Amino acid sequence: MSGATKDQEPDAGIGEASPTRDRVVRALTDDDTFRVMVAVTSRTVRGAIEAQRARGETARHFADLLTGAVLVRETMAPQYRVQAVLKGARGRGTLVADAHPDGLTRGLVQVSDDERLTLGAGGSLLMMRGGANRMYRSVTEPPDGGSVAEALMVYLQTSEQIISVTAVGATTRDDSIEHAGGYLVQLLPGAARGPLMVMTERLAAMPPIGELLASVGGDADALLAELLYLMPHTKLGDSDVRHGCLCDVNAVLASLGTLPREEIVELMKGDEVLELSCDYCRTEYAIPTTRLEGLLARS
Ligand SMILES: [Zn+2]
């Protein structure tokens, strides 16, 4: 796959200084008790939902998974890629979030129209993080009837030994995402459990994440200040997040390489040009069938 990047939703008219551009910020409380990650992902989530034509409850879970993947990447592996694959209860429906170190984030929705994706028994959350040389994988079962945030907290605690309070969410207006984002408050190793109880109560007393995002106008810094009100802290990182894709004609062609040889031969008998689209961004590629010969040579 080439390293070229295709942005699906350029920030038309929004300057660098805009507080509402999609970002993820990281901070540490000065008493070394908490690390806090705050993500604003409104445009990213809107772009991914539009590309995947997700709707209703599926779109809400998809929004949460995209934000969650950004938060986990920022928490565990800012230099690496994080992929989250959520399978619905009874194995019905799959959502994928794919967050890259340069902020590029994309996703996949594989849920049939008559299906409703819910979390619970028979479902799973597969998290993958790493680079070309080393990939960590972990599978956990989301709590029955729970939220993506709860599934992420289970994963973080059981697979990464990270105790956190995590919230992800979105608000909609006219069937379109208005605000999306979330936070992850991590109790640092060695810190006493007492402060966690105080923090948990503090966060529980706050409005739901969607309301919080709306109240700060989608500004990540203002959300951080709200979460850590009167708690001295230092900002450690601030990076952009955006919806985009990494596909090119070779990547789309390579996806055909998993087909059985007979099916590739069958495709070559058809039209001279094969119309294929990227599953993530729906970009269409016209591929001459002669290019499939290369796949046969390898299969
Ligand atoms: Zn694509």
Description:
The chain has 299 residues and is an alpha+beta fold. 32% of the residues lie in helices and 31% in strands. It has 2 domains: 21-244, 3-Layer(bab) Sandwich (Hsp33 domain), CATH 3.55.30; 249-298, CBS domain Like. It is built from 9 helices and 14 strands. A 7-stranded mixed sheet has the order 1-12-6-5-4-7-8. The radius of gyration is 20 Å and the shape is elongated. The protein starts with 5 loop residues before the first strand and ends with a helix. The structure holds zinc ion. The site of zinc ion has 6 residues, from loops. Zinc ion binds next to loops.
Q: Topology of this protein?
A:
Layout: E1 6-7, E2 23-29, E3 34-40, H1 42-52, H2 56-76, E4 81-87, E5 94-99, E6 104-110, E7 124-130, E8 135-140, H3 148-160, E9 163-173, E10 176-187, H4 193-204, H5 209-215, H6 220-227, E11 233-240, E12 242-245, H7 249-256, H8 261-269, E13 273-277, E14 284-288, H9 293-298
Parallel strand pairs: 6-12
Antiparallel strand pairs: 1-12, 2-3, 2-11, 3-10, 4-5, 4-7, 5-6, 7-8, 9-10, 13-14
Helix pairs in contact: 1-2
The structure holds zinc ion.
Number of domains: 2
Q: Output the strand order for the largest sheet.
A: 1-12-6-5-4-7-8
What is the CA-atom radius of gyration, in angstroms? 20 Å
Distance between the termini: 19 Å
Name the bound molecules.
zinc ion
Question: What is the highest CATH level, the class of the largest domain?
Answer: Alpha Beta
CATH topology descriptor of the largest domain: Hsp33 domain
Helix coverage percent:
25-40%
CATH level-four homologous superfamily name of the largest domain: Hsp33 domain
Strand content: 25-35%
